[in-house]
Amino acid sequence: MPAGELNRSVIARAALTLVDREGLGALSMRRLGAELGVEGMAVYHHFANKDALLDEVVTEVLRQTAPEPTGDWRADVRALSHAFRNTVRAHPALLMVTMTRPVDTPETAAFREAQYAALTAAGLSGGALLDAHRTWGSYLVGYLVVEYQAEHSGYRDSDWTPTRRDGFPLTAGLSPYQAGRGWDEQFDVGLDLVLDGISALRGRSR
């Protein structure tokens, strides 16, 4: 690609493709330049460093992520949750980017504002809104980390089921339920619990 045809969006999409294919560790300005058919220094004309590039990669993804609000706060929280999960499952390396460094761009701010708006529609404000947002976010990130580790560990889902039951009656009693749900269903079950907790905070500002 001629260097004159490069722009921030083209570079970010190429970086996303590389990271999706080979992981975050494969990304460097030199390697990205090679993917684009230009010298690595050509990338620096658009991004001062790798962190700035990663900000733009996250931005590129989030441009397509936030669903339109419906006016039903539970439906909106659910839609935002599924949008985030679908994005991370499509681009799992980006979870580590958002977990290990702040990303503050207009697009990330807009996605966060959409989350705040859904919680405001639930009747939350002030400290209660922040508490709900942090709890919701912790559930999403925690679930996605566990889901990713399980799916990439080389073990089957059944391998994670406790097998030591003798002398542990509560564990034994839960055995019939252990394999009853897949990842999609369990995500919704947990999300419903979070939504119920948010509902209990309605009308509070703290």
UniProtKB/TrEMBL annotation:
The keyword Transcription applies. InterPro entries: Homeodomain-like_sf (IPR009057), HTH-type_TetR-like_transc_reg (IPR050109), HTH_TetR (IPR001647), Repressor_TetR_C (IPR004111), Tet_transcr_reg_TetR-rel_C_sf (IPR036271). Keywords: DNA-binding, Transcription, Transcription regulation. One of its GO terms (molecular function) is transcription cis-regulatory region binding. One of its GO terms (biological process) is negative regulation of DNA-templated transcription. It comes from Actinocatenispora sera. This is TetR family transcriptional regulator. Residues 5-65 form the HTH tetR-type domain. The keyword DNA-binding applies. Residues 28-47 bind DNA. Transmembrane segments: none annotated.
